From TrEMBL:
UniProt lineage: Bacteria, Bacillati, Bacillota, Bacilli, Bacillales
Organism whose genome encodes this protein: Paenibacillus phytorum
Top-rank taxon: Bacteria
Name assigned to this protein: Uncharacterized protein
Amino acid sequence: MKKEYIIHFKVIHKDSIQLLRGLIFLDENQKPTIYDFQQCLIDCGHEVRIENTEQAIFKAYKPGEQYWIQILRDQENNTRDLNVENLAKNFMKNEPTA
């Protein structure tokens, strides 16, 4: 069974920083690799090359521009279990309508 793994990353341009997210589908109990991160960034439209594997930093290219992308690993448990989420929704009380 595949699970969603949300990655958070920052795109660093010379004059701005953006915080963005991407989505990777992994087998259960599988951890994402640097190559999974790279493919996710490519799927998000960034032409990237791995620059630093330990800090998960990528050099990205756009016509006339080069910028950096860093994967943020501060989210220790950022996988989603849709079955658990759907089950939890069943236990939530609906707001009474007036």
